[in-house]
């Protein structure tokens, strides 16, 4: 088996880096030399401080409420696997993380941290443990603009195992439910399946390669096998916790909280309010006390990662003096036509979030956010602002009447299960056959896939609509015959909406049909700026 990987961020400043793995036997990997435009890397073994790991002792019947957070984390061992709840900085256990950081790398080190995102660019979350050198490996779905984490990865100070967000949630759910493995369509025909994202690098050398997935075919379709995640210790934050450990969460703080608690041997929760047993009614309990071993008082303030408030300005008026915004508004306005009355729709970060602004008041479209909302509303006013209600882009939002909230496993089950009618995403490249690439530009962009691979995992049931500028910042076409960037999904896109045109995509046969032109745009311009061949509809329309 042989496959090539044009890899990733800024490796030794190389303009084009390619790693080729050839599997010749069970003995391991052999690296082949290529042309002068490529670089090859040796694989060697990493050596680390001895860290036995393992969970603290679980003692049934002991009082769960601890007088201090330092006492609650004192027996966590170096080498442990820590499951850290939260989405961005919403629902993160800041008080507990602070106590772990206080122990320092001499007392607590070589941790494996499992979290949707391992810290942020502005600090908070796992950032203190990572910058302090206490974490040796992170299993996460998203790096974002966390340059400190990226630098540690490139320098070999930390290993990163990128995992699609929905897969991460399901691995945790299975870990807590006693299920060793499962099969998923997420990540098929991507670097996740082939294991082409190295987990650990150092000086241009692959210390630890990625792990290729075992696959099976069910009903004529390929699925990846993923294994469960188990943790030694889970750390989470809840709104109210009674002295028996029963937890109540507020809104999107529960995205990973219950999943982390169930998948760990010992779970520690920091509570905004510790209450007597009986104060929480049975129907108010989101996580039963059987999953909680230790309770501490939350003292750290909540952090709002992206404070976004509602604007009363007309977006069309704003766009008159801002060409880039005018392009985005044009795309969003056309995208709104894909949202039919009664539809359930998932909107990715960026441009897709603008589409609801162009829906009529009686549209009856339910917006789903992958971090656990069905019925997402507009951005809040200053008076409506709530740190516990955020969208997939970590922006503050509101909920519409009838909205529901749930954990990430439930959310991605809706998506993979085909219960969502439309999913809208951005793109770096879109192929004429419906291939989508939107999470990595080797040598430039390496943010992680987040939930994108899950969002496109069932394109037969959930229509995938891409919203993107027709060309990139350098003028290169983003619609191409064949994607050259790492794929998010293969043959998944049904409709492409750009600032110049709208295309229908034939995912089965592979081909594009131009169905609409933007106002003031002629066919020759679209041909010039499209890197793929396409047919033109008989009744070519105009974007409205």
Question: Could you explain how this protein is built, in words?
Answer:
The structure is a single chain. This protein has 544 residues and is α/β, with parallel strands linked by helices. Helices cover 17% and strands 28% of the residues. It contains twelve helices and 31 strands. The strands form seven sheets. It has a ten-stranded mixed beta sheet. Strands 4, 5, 6, 7, 13, 14, 15 and 16 form an eight-stranded mixed beta sheet that branches. The chain has a three-stranded antiparallel beta sheet with strand order 1-2-3, with no helix packed on it. A hairpin with a 4-residue loop joins strand 29 (501-506) and strand 30. Helix 5 packs across helix 10 (408-416). The longest helix is centred in the first third of the chain and has 14 residues, at 94-107. The protein is globular. Mean pLDDT is 90; it is low at 1-48.
Keyword list:
544 residues; mitochondrion; 17% helix; succinyl-CoA:3-oxo-acid CoA-transferase activity; Succinyl-CoA:3-ketoacid-coenzyme A transferase; alpha/beta; disordered N terminus; 10-stranded mixed β-sheet
